[in-house]
Amino acid sequence: MPAADAAHYELAFHVLPTVAEGEVAETAAAIQSLIESAGGTITETEAPKRFDLAYEIVKYLEGRNRKFTSAYFGWTRFTLEPSQLADINEQVAAMPKLLRHLTIRLTKAEEEHVFMFHDALDDTDEDAVEVNEESVAPVAVEEPAAAEATKDADEKV
Which domains does the chain have, with CATH numbers? Predict the structure, then answer.
């Protein structure tokens, strides 16, 4: 495949939380194998790790709608000829262990700056928020007498 024809993509995916932890890595490897068999080249990956979802996702499985509040999230960056992308997306969509997936074409800036989701998540402490007087902007409070005068003026109009 000529390098000029290749485009840079990122395929992000959620693996079902019901999948055994040992099989999660196999699922990520299967996605990478699909890409490579289509002539793609893997450039970066982030192994799937379990985390809480921002909102509940409903998926129809085993004859009923199931609700999920967590999943294993991972991603793979790769280069590939654009004509091969639709086939990969179809095959990934058919994988029964995936809750959801999304493929995007990367911009030059995105190619150069890899965002490691799990590292960023580990660096944030959502439970601790430090607030001090310098970090809070003063709020203007209207005096009650001035508020009454404004109310009386509005009623006369």
Answer: 7-123 (3.30.70.60)
CA-closest candidate to residue 103, choices 20, 8, 9? 9
Question: For residues 82 and 91, what is the distance between their CA atoms, to the nearest angstrom?
Answer: 15
Asked if the model's pLDDT at residue 82 lies above 70, the reply is yes
Please state, as a whole number, how many other Cβ atoms lie within 10 Å of the Cβ of residue 11.
Answer: 24
Q: The tokens of 70 are what?
A: 């967590």
How far is C-alpha 55 from the chain's CA centre? 12
Which range is least confidently modeled, 12-21, 33-42, 63-72, 113-122? 113-122
Q: Considering the chain, what is the average pLDDT of its residues?
A: 80
Q: What are phi and psi for residue 147, nearest 5 degrees?
A: -65, -40
Phi-psi category of residue 45: left, alpha or beta, with phi > 0 → left and psi -120 to 50 → alpha: beta
Report residue 92 CA to chain centroid gap. Answer: 17
